Amino acid sequence: MSDSLERLYLAVLAARDLDPATSRTARLFQRGPSKMAKKLAEEAIEVVIDAVNGDTDAVVRESADLLYNLTVLWASAGVRPEDVWREMTRREDMLGIAEKLPKSAMKLPKVASPRVAARRPIVALEGRTARKRH
């Protein structure tokens, strides 16, 4: 998967200076980060709606659009895919692959940590119950 996102990222970088009249990517770069963010949010909402409606095929299609728009926003912000992979590795080393860092842990110093042998196990998400946020 990361190879596909790497290729997409490189294609986005190559397309950003094309003619906005013929390139959707160039048009997004021309319109700036706020338009990119709006498109990303729209795609995220579409993924959520399709998932709630149980439309798996639509979730797949909209997820591809979501990843495209995320990659465009990364490129605009100067974020490279390997920056994200490095953060994911750091989090995995701390908590396991299927966990999100709590907000209090976000302020921990960045450490170039080697892969930790004793990680938390990967957990199945199907058995978890949804909690309502307040």
Characteristic key phrases:
134 residues, mainly alpha, globular, Helix Hairpins
What is the second-level CATH architecture of the largest domain?
Orthogonal Bundle
Order of helices and strands: HHHHH
**What is the number of domains?**
2
Name of the CATH class of the largest domain: Mainly Alpha
Number of H/I helices = 5
Which whole number gives the mean pLDDT? 82
CATH homologous superfamily (4th level) name of the largest domain: MazG-like
CATH topology of the largest domain: Helix Hairpins
| Rg result | 18 Å
Distance between the termini: 35 Å
Global outline: globular
Counted beta strands? 0
User: Helix/strand/pairing class, anyone?
Assistant: mainly alpha
How would you characterize this protein structure?
There is one protein chain. It is built from 5 helices and no strands. With 134 residues, the protein is mostly helical. The protein folds into 2 domains: 2-79, Helix Hairpins (Orthogonal Bundle), CATH 1.10.287; 84-134, no CATH class. The radius of gyration is 18 Å and the shape is globular. The two termini are 35 Å apart.
How do the helices and strands line up, and which of them pair or pack?
Blueprint: H1 2-15, H2 24-31, H3 33-52, H4 56-77, H5 81-95
Helix pairs in contact: 1-4, 3-4
